[in-house]
Amino acid sequence: MPAPTSSRTLWKGAISFGLVHIPVTLHSATAENRMKFNLLDKQTMAPVGNKQVNKATGESMAREEIVKGFEVEKDQYVVLTPDEIKAALPKSTQTIAIESFVEREQIPTVFFNKPYYVTPAGTGGRKPFALLRETLERTNKVGIARVVIATRQHLAALIPDGNGLVLNLLRWEDEVRDVAGLAWPGDDVAVSAAELKMAEQLVAAMAGEWQPDLFHDEFREKLMALVEEKARAGGMQQVAPLPGEEVAPSAEVIDLTELLRRSLKGNAAAPAPANKAPARRASAAAANDEAAPLRKAAARKTTSSARASTKPASRRKSG
């Protein structure tokens, strides 16, 4: 099953080529589903973070004590200030500026990096958007453009895809490694006609339609099954909050819901005078519950409220 559609707009601007200006928005076309683990202290279950330390002394470094340096030669660095780096950042034009149109097959696979779905912004951009998409489809061309996203300039290919367009960020030429020196077989390896025929027959026998739902990340599925099995067996452990941090909101929701449920159950059982004993038992159970301090505090508040509501009745009984 594909990841759910993302309606969140990541970038808003326009496609521009010649005098054509098409307002568009970008949406993420991929979702990251890799297993992510947090580092925890084995004994206390407290989160373990990554510290920036001086590799020579092993001492922790404050942010203001750290500078950014570029290694020009071995162990020789040039330090750049934040202002110098900021001045070099590309200016955002909010434009996918198409500079040329090329055959789709001319772009090597290794250049493709990250795709985004492109949609027209507003009703006014729908017709020129459809016109560009249809033109690219009929001519088997893609638009090669420059675009600035989150302060970074990218090379990109604007590609027709069904009823829409996909903007696939491309790697720059110096990011793609040369294949010279790789041990790829060339003319020195001969393939006979009989071998080629049998190989073609095997490919034909295994040929089929592209069905991505038939393939799964088995490693992730096995780990998730193991996590769910351990969770059902009571294998979950509470992460210890750091000093000064509040308890996670999810814990508050669960505890308050339980307290409200108990209160509603007690109030629905009978009128207030006949319900004093159950209310006291519910308050005592909440106060004696073995849980986090926040639950105890919430229980104490409930107990105080219960006492306040029954105080007049107690005076009538004693009189």
Automatic annotation (TrEMBL):
SMART domains xref list: Ku78
InterPro entries per record: DNA_bd_Ku70/Ku80 (IPR006164), Prok_Ku (IPR009187), SPOC-like_C_dom_sf (IPR016194)
UniProt keyword annotation of DNA-binding present: yes
Keyword Transit peptide: no
Composition bias, Low complexity: 267-312
GO MF annotation, one: double-stranded DNA binding
UniProt KW keywords: DNA damage, DNA recombination, DNA repair, DNA-binding
GO term, biological process aspect, one: DNA recombination
Pfam families tied to this protein: Ku
Region feature Disordered, mapped onto this chain: 267-319
Segments forming domain Ku: 58-187
CDD domains reported for this sequence: KU_like (cd00789)
Subunit structure: Homodimer. Interacts with LigD.
Similarity section: Belongs to the prokaryotic Ku family.
UniProt-listed NCBIfam families: Ku_bact
Function per UniProt: With LigD forms a non-homologous end joining (NHEJ) DNA repair enzyme, which repairs dsDNA breaks with reduced fidelity. Binds linear dsDNA with 5'- and 3'- overhangs but not closed circular dsDNA nor ssDNA. Recruits and stimulates the ligase activity of LigD.
Protein name per UniProt: Non-homologous end joining protein Ku
Species whose genome carries this gene: Ramlibacter agri
